[in-house]
Amino acid sequence: MDGDALLGAGLALVDGDIEFDDGDLRWLSGLPNLVQALQLRVLTPFGSDIFNTTYGLDTRQIFTQPGSVQTIKAIIKLNLVSTLGADARVRDIRELLFEDDAGYLDRHPELDANAIAIDRQRRLWKVDVVIDTVTNQAQTLPVDVGV
Questions:
Q1: Per CATH, which fold does 3-146 belong to?
Q2: CA 130, CA 138: separation in Å to the nearest integer?
Q3: Which residues, listed in sequence order, are joined to residue 62 by a DSSP beta bridge?
Q4: 48 vs 15, 52, 53, 86, 123, CA distance in Å?
Q5: What mean pLDDT, rounded, does the chain reach?
Q6: From edge to edge, which strands make up the β-sheet containing 138-146?
Q7: Residues 54-88: pLDDT tens digits?
Q8: Are 35 and 139 in contact (CB under 8 A)?
Q9: Which pLDDT value is given to residue 117?
Q10: Can you tell me whether residue 118 is helix, strand or coil?
Q11: What's the pLDDT at 112?
Q12: DSSP at 132
């Protein structure tokens, strides 16, 4: 079975809406389909899908309990690993790098310390998640966790 078949196919979405290409539905396959599916998994509140109650990211702990920055980051990491690792197309989660971690600004030269401070005030956590797929491809998935 080729890599695209292992990573699946689905309708292309833009801001949650089905995308069309000259009046026809636009499809994604392979790695772009997996990236879109994982982003949708993270954006879906845990338990809100009545057909799969274990689908989605559990943000209740993150935003309803007091805690230090390190505690909140640990909870986010645990939930992201659990959520993304539940997809059979993800072989391993190699790295989670928060925007206030060393090295994040090296990957994102378009940002500065002020932008990160604003995100923190808005309770927005930006994370780069590096995954290995079942097709042995490494992929960085940008994730925004926030209210």
A1: Nuclear Transport Factor 2; Chain: A, (3.10.450)
A2: 7
A3: none
A4: 19, 8, 6, 16, 22
A5: 91
A6: 90-98, 124-133, 138-146
A7: 999 988 877 787 888 888 899 999 999 999 999 99
A8: yes
A9: 83
A10: helix
A11: 86
A12: E
Residue 115: strand, helix, or coil: helix
Q: Which of 12, 61, 72 is nearest to 40 (CA)?
A: 12
Check if the beta carbon of residue 94 is closer than 8 Å to that of residue 132.
Answer: yes
Report CA 105 to chain centroid distance, whole Å.
Answer: 19
Tell me the per-residue pLDDT of 115-135, one tens digit each, with 9 for 90 and over: 888 887 887 889 999 999 999
Residue 6 has pLDDT above 90, yes or no: yes
Residue located via tokens 């971690």: 101
Please report, rounded to a whole number, the percentage of residues in the chain having pLDDT higher than 70. Answer: 99
Tell me how far apart the alpha carbons of residues 56 and 120 are, in angstroms, rounded to a whole number.
23
Taking the domains of the chain in order of start, what are their residue ranges? Answer: 3-146
